[in-house]
Amino acid sequence: MQWFIEIFNETGPTFEQNVLGFKGIDTVEPDNIECVLSSDFSVYGLGARRPTFAPLLGDGIFTQDASPWKHSRDMLRPLFSLNRANIFTQVEEHTEHLLQCIPANEFSDLQPLFFQFTFDTTTFLLFGKSMNSLQIASTTPNAVNAREAEFSEAFRVSQDYLFRRGRLGDLYWLIGGKEFRKSCSIVHRFIDDAVQEALLTYFSEGKAVDVHSFLDALIQETRDPRILRDQLLNVMLAGRDTTACCLTWTFRLLAQHPHVLNKLRREISSTVGVGKESRLPDRNSLKKMKYLSLVFKEVLRLYPSVPINSRTALQATTIPTGGGPDGTQPLMIRKGEAVGYSVYIMHRLKKLYGEDADSFRPERWDPDVDNTVNLKDIGWGYLPFNGGPRICLGQEFALLEASFVIVRMLQKFRTFELDPRDLEIAVGAENQEVTLVIACTNGCQVKAVE
Predict the structure, then answer these.
(1) What residues have CB less than 8 Å from 77, skipping those under 6 apart?
(2) 417, 449 in Cβ contact below 8 A?
(3) Could you tell me the CA-to-CA distances from 184 to 72, 84, 230, 361 in Å, in that order?
(4) Of 365, 335, 361, 380, residue with least CA distance to 28
(5) How far apart are the first and last CA of the chain?
(6) Which pLDDT score is estimated for 222?
(7) E strands, 36-113, where?
(8) What is the pTM of this model?
């Protein structure tokens, strides 16, 4: 992302780009982003996203527009409150599996463990049963663990292709090939197996099955295997990778800023205890942890789940700023022209967050602290979960899941030390892997100290 930041530093917050003859607008201005995502929502669509993403994601909530998108959103919205107590129990169970996989007092990479953790919780959410990859990995590797590894790598590779295709706009078709097709096929086969099992149960019982998962609920709407696969894959993308990346960045930052980690652990200690005398946090105790919420806000400011996105104008229109000699006048957007926006870069603007915008400082969000910049009315300058009608449906569950993991890890381990080789790397200067989400190329190499 450093390359994109340098471009905006050279050109200003809104500029026109020309890729192989195709023109588009890129912006990091909150007013422009609010216009595209909310006030002029009906004027914009996803443009080439559907054919760009279709080889992997098919026709689901992230690739749909207009009435199909609205139908998918209405169908999926109630599912995020489905079996909440049961889902929370699963989060507790898989967090304990995660803790068992973290070696004490030696360096290890937490990032792949976080991806396995969110894979386990997401497969339960989607299919009603978890793959339990962490539990299996902590005992002995077998075919199930190998299958999860194959799926994860194929999912990562296919997303990388989608990101590169997306950067080419209408020329997305220039990027593809055998590796891309093979990765998509592996991902599809994994989901198709679960769909077929659920359909067999549905038809064998000759009646509607009890709803224990997203898949059970979707089967009440349709028995088309392709539609079921597409919707499940779209939700898996949101539920697995985004939370895993959030946890990775959180522990890198905490290990890099021990004073923040210590302050957070003190809050945890005063609320639910730490060490052997601690008790499991519940929803109410998690909500009481004010500093934990500030840490999350700051992590998601610096590393929002989806760093780059875009919309395409369905008709000629304007955005509030970027035009005129000084860039403060409205700017015309032609029909069919894409407006790209980067929340990652917007969240680092000094005019919004002050001179220390590149620094990790959770206290900037504390209304009781005398900050140089008051973020109470930051509004569209802070978009960790997108905004407008397409705001993330699963944000409450994602924060609940990640909060529980962080608290349990800091209850068990006294501190986390960052690999000395990473200590001098400035926030934002890490080697980053940008697909549809933003991960750390070097992972999260830390020592968990008991």
Answers:
(1) 393
(2) yes
(3) 22, 31, 12, 40
(4) 380
(5) 35
(6) 87
(7) 44-45, 107-109
(8) 0.91
Q: Is 197 within 8 Å of 84 (Cβ atoms)?
A: no
Alpha-carbon gap, residue 148 to 236, rounded angstroms: 14
Q: Give 228-281 as a DSSP string.
A: HHHHHHHHHIIIIIHHHHHHHHHHHHHHH-HHHHHHHHHHHHHHT--GGG----
Average pLDDT, the chain: 90
Is residue 142 scored above 70 in pLDDT? no
Instruction: Give φ, ψ of 75 to 5 degrees.
Output: -75, -40
At 140, is the pLDDT very low, low, confident or very high (cuts 50, 70, 90)? low
Tokens encoding 364: 């900037």
In three-state secondary structure terms, 310 is: strand
Q: Which amino acid is at 116?
A: Q
- β-pairing, 338-342 with 22-27? parallel
Cα–Cα nearest to 73, from 184, 238, 202: 238
Q: How far apart are CA 210 and CA 218, in angstroms?
A: 12
- At 224, give phi and psi (nearest 5°): -75, 115
How far apart are alpha carbons 351 and 336 in whole angstroms?
A: 31
**pLDDT at 434 (0 to 100):** 86
Query: Of the candidates 54, 393, 77, 390, which has an alpha carbon nearest to the alpha carbon of residue 221?
Result: 77
